[in-house]
Specification:
It is a single chain. The chain is α/β, with parallel strands linked by helices. The protein has eleven helices and twelve strands. The protein has an eight-stranded parallel beta barrel, surrounded by six helices. A two-stranded antiparallel ribbon has the order 1-2. The longest helix has 22 residues. Bound molecules: flavin mononucleotide. The site of flavin mononucleotide has 23 residues, from strand 4 and helix 10.
């Protein structure tokens, strides 16, 4: 079976339909702002990054992308997180994924971004490198450790090659902003991808400055990429942010169950503090697992199956980072109970609900969510 790092199953429950009223606005549908930016978000519902697996042979946009993103945008979510888009040809996990390593690819993506903007939606691109998950000829990773016994052994990256990848992230980001016109950039350090492989001790056995020895060294490449993006787009005198940066970060390898005393391991908490306090990212988008075949599914993380697993973490992080401008988002079965989701937003347990499969299953998801809250969406 082909490993798809993105898929995970969950059971959703459906609620019966109440009568609609137009008062008052539920917290989930209240507009808010991304601090220090000019970005106003319409509500707290975002489309989570989802590969369409529809790209053509040049890893460029196909018809399906147009119809899919138009369908998402017409529902007016706060943010559309564009699908994982690969920074070089060697980093691709699936033949049908999109690339942004040349201008032609970027100009085609621009057509989608223009369409999304025509509905008044904000859209970020997610930049991705598969590392040892890639299917290219020259598979690279922090260390020569294959995903499983059937996988190709990746080549350990040397310092020159790491510097090249760092440069390719910056070039991909420049195309994303200057050609495509995206409103922000999400760096994926999750789903077992290259940056996640550096971050996790399971996949990073290096002894050098990008190695396993310190917390800082494990996220050095991620931090350098963020620094490059901030230098390129956000070096203003007044602290304003022109291009907000989101990091989708795996905060638990899901190998063993959390202790329950402190939901986030010390190492990971230190990394998050670096990202939020030092690197001043605008969105911390929490996820977990998928670094190894031994990673359990996310819902094994908490004992209460009625609470989406990542809410435990986002609630904790909302308190921890309450004095910062960083918004906390997460994904994972958030649409299984809409009144509860509304409650999480109201009680400050989460800022942005990233929803994936729900948007694929229901072409009117946002309207369905409003109905469940007895709320009449404005025209
Ligand atoms: C078809 C599909 C493609 C996905 N592609 C990506 C991706 O490109 N990047 C990413 O970070 N996550 C990806 N994901 C994970 C989702 O963004 C999301 O985190 C996950 O599905 C959990 O949210 P959900 O339960 O609302 O679907 C994908 C998920 C699905 C179902």
């Amino acid at each position: 079976m082909t490993y798809n790092p993105f898929r995970e199953q969950y059971n959703s429950t459906s609620n019966t339909q109440p009568t609609l009223t137009s008062t008052p606005i539920p917290s989930l549908f209240k507009p808010f702002k991304v601090s220090n930016t000019s970005i106003n978000l319409k509500n707290h519902i975002a489309v989570s990054s989802m590969c369409s697996f529809a790209a053509d042979n040049n890893h460029e946009i196909a018809n399906l992308h147009h119809s899919r993103y138009k369908s998402f945008a017409s529902q007016k979510p706060s943010i559309i997180m564009f699908e994982g888009t690969f920074i070089n040809s060697n980093s691709i996990i699936d033949d049908k994924e999109l690339g942004i390593w040349n201008d032609e690819q970027a100009f085609k993506i621009k057509e989608i971004v223009d369409e999304i903007h025509s509905f008044g939606c904000i859209c970020f691109i997610q930049l991705f490198h598969g590392g040892r998950m890639a299917k290219g000829l020259n598979i690279v990773a922090p260390s020569s450790i294959p995903y499983d016994s059937n996988s190709i052994v990746p080549k350990e990256l040397n310092l020159k090659e790491i510097a090249k990848i760092r440069f390719e992230y910056l070039e991909a980001a420049k195309r994303s902003i200057n050609i495509c016109g995206f409103d922000g950039i999400e760096i994926a350090c999750c789903n077992g991808n290259l940056l996640h492989q550096f971050q996790s001790k399971i996949t990073n056995h290096r002894e050098d400055e990008y190695g396993k020895k310190t917390i800082e060294s494990r996220i050095k490449l991620l931090c350098e990429i963020i620094d490059d993006l901030n230098n390129e787009f956000n070096s203003t005198n007044d602290n304003s942010i022109k291009v907000p940066i989101s990091v989708k970060f795996s905060i638990n390898d899901n190998i063993k169950r959390a202790s329950g005393i402190h939901p986030i391991e010390e190492d990971i908490m230190k990394m998050l503090k670096i990202l939020v306090y030092d690197k001043k990212i605008s969105i911390l988008n929490i996820t977990s697992g998928k670094i190894s075949p031994n990673s359990k599914l996310r819902y094994t993380l908490n004992r209460n199956s009625n609470i989406p697993a990542h809410i435990i973490f986002s609630s904790f992080l909302k308190k921890e980072f309450s004095n910062t401008n960083c918004l906390i988002g997460c994904s994972g079965a958030l649409n299984m109970n809409i009144p509860k989701l509304n409650d999480y937003i109201e009680k400050n347990k989460l800022d942005i609900a990233f929803i994936g499969e729900g948007f694929l299953e229901d072409p009117n998801l946002i309207e369905s969510m409003a109905i469940k809250l007895n709320y009449l969406l404005p025209p």
